[in-house]
Amino acid sequence: MTQLKHYLETRKKLKAYEYVMWLMSWDAETEAPKKALEYRSKQLEVMAGEVYSIQSDKQYVQAIESLHEQLDTLDKDLQTEIKKEFRELRFIKKVPKEAYIAYQVLLSKSVPLWAEAKHKNDFKLFAPTLKEIVEYQRNLVKYLEEEKLKGYDLLLDMYEEGFTHKEYDFFFDTLKKELVDFVKEVTKDPKPLHPKLANGPFDKDKQKVFSEYLLDVFFYDRERGLLKTSEHPFTSGVTSVDTRITTRYLEDNLASSIFSTIHEMGHGLYEMQNDPKYDDTYLHGGTSLGIHESQSRMYENMIGRSKAFWQLHYKKLQEVFAPQLDDVKLDDFMDYMNHTARTLIRVEADELTYALHIMVRYDIEKRLISGDIEVEDLPQIWNDTYEAYLGIRSSTDTEGVLQDIHWSGGSFGYFPTYALGSAYGAQIYDAMANEIDVEDAISKNNIQAINDWTKEHIHQYAQSKTPKEIMLIATKKPFDPMHYVNYLKGKYAK
Prior knowledge:
α1 runs antiparallel to α2 (37-56), α5 runs antiparallel to α6 (123-144) and α15 (354-370) packs antiparallel against α16 (378-390). The mean pLDDT is 94. This protein has two domains: 2-144, no CATH class; 165-492, Neurolysin, domain 3 (Orthogonal Bundle), CATH 1.10.1370. It has helices at residues 2-30, 37-56, 58-69, 76-94, 97-120, 123-144, 152-159, 165-186, 195-199, 204-217, 254-272, 289-303, 307-320, 330-337, 354-370, 378-390, 416-435, 438-443, 447-457, 467-475, 482-492; strands at residues 227-229, 235-239, 242-247. The chain is mainly alpha-helical. The protein is globular.
């Protein structure tokens, strides 16, 4: 089949470009010299142009269209991949080449500019770049919208297929109904934390030692991945044999690096445990952002914050931070790791209040993409929305509108998947606990048993299954957010 042969040969070439461009992006966000930014952007422009030309080549497009018409002649995985690539053709057919290339160059510069603006506490420094990104997103919606999928819904669908604002509105309304008053009650009289944990400081080199220790606890394969530092923790990879994670170290917050590291390992393990047969296909990775986030949040919160986990590993933490933590009891440490409070920073938020942080971003994104608000309005609107949902306001851009990296990368529609992922994770954890003794595995330093279960029921499938199919495979029933509600109320009820 000549069309299939051409598709496979072109895919091989595109995967090579993808890997090189990914390495350039990884380098930019971790350790590339600042003065290399402009030169790297020029090279990226060339690469992006080449990729676009290959993807838009008439023969390649015809191959995908032809294969899509004869899906029954292909194996199941290739059918799934061709359906996915046929859907992606809308970008090639409807988005102008010049706009696409210019946008890739813009993104190559935007992350360092965002980081600088955040460091300097100056939104105006980043605002012009963000305005260009938002304008592209608004135009993208116009390019791609269809009768059944328009506006912000189109962006939401890119990250979690099948979820539009109607589904998300129902989901968030459920959480508001069940949790808003509950959060107010729980956070009304917060228990004071041990002063050594609350105040620090915590040496960054010691934090790094413990993060490295955690890699081995969770069986993160150092021969297929690595741990670096970045302004905002993230996971990045295009193959099961090269999946990289970052964390960050804050001297005044010991929990930050611990749970950033575990969180990103949850993402990383998902990618590493994909069936290797998907490495050279377009099916490598997580099936959706929500399912991906279910793994990071489950590993971070339901495993990493459990007493069973720290009964085993707290002595190691005390050893690394000796004598600083010598007289800090495990119960005091557990109170510190699981305290809940209405705070400003999403990545530092406890799991009870986390969904409220996502609601802020979801509400703002809907209005921003629709044109109801503009970029220059964001600092004020951000603070007003935080006050409405959490009863607090930020006094700085750094802790407010500039705290997240996502908008600098053009990731509009991404944020809601964080809350959805937490809810997925609760349901998946319940299902796993019905099949294996999770607490026993944690307490006996046998996280591999958990990794094996998640690989069998979720990770191995990569993108060959839809989120709904994964939930049915893993939990044997459709998604139900009440698993999440019940988990939170059960853990945090006074």
